[in-house]
Amino acid sequence: MAEPTPRHHEPRLRPAPLLFEPAAAAADPEHFFDLESIDDPRTLLDRATELTQAFRAATDRAVEFQAMAAAQLADPRKFDRLTAADIAERAEWTEDYAKKMVEFGRSLLRGGESGENGENGRGPVDLL
Q1: How far apart are CA 86 and CA 55, in angstroms?
Q2: Which helix (H) or strand (E) holds 72?
Q3: DSSP 3-state assignment of 103?
Q4: How many CB atoms sit inside 10 A of residue 37's CB?
Q5: How far apart are CA 35 and CA 56, in angstroms?
Q6: Which of 80, 71, 77 is nearest to 108 (CA)?
Q7: How confident is the model at residue 30, as a pLDDT?
Q8: Which value, in Å, is the radius of gyration of the alpha carbons in the chain?
Q9: Tens digit of each residue's pLDDT (9 = 90 or more) over 71-97
Q10: Closest listed residue to residue 123, CA positions, set 71, 74, 53, 52
C-alpha cells in the first residue's frame, strides 16, 4: 500500500499539482492529464511519476480524514454517536474495517506519536 504520510516531526513533501481537467478533455476516455500528448518517454515517465505520487499523497490524506470523521461519528461522549456497523454501512466498508478506522482516527485526533498509525506503525488501509 501507500507509504505512511509524514507527521509533525517530518516535513510533508508537496506532490506535483493535479492540473485542472477541462470538462471536454475529461469526457474523452483516452485523455488523462494530457499524458497522451507527451512524446518523449523520459518526460512521460517523469510526469506520470509525479501524478502517481500526487494521487498517493491525496489518497493518504483522504484516508486520514475518513478516519478522523469515523472517530468523531463514533465518539462515545455524544448521544447521537454511530456504531461501527452504521459507519461501515455509510462508508461502504466492512464493520471490522470501520472499527480499525475509528481507532486510527482516534489516534490521529489525539495526535499521538507512537500510536498514530496503529501499534505497528501502519494505518488501517495496510491492515486489509
Answers
A1: 28
A2: helix 41-73
A3: helix
A4: 8
A5: 18
A6: 71
A7: 72
A8: 18
A9: 999 999 999 999 999 999 999 999 999
A10: 71
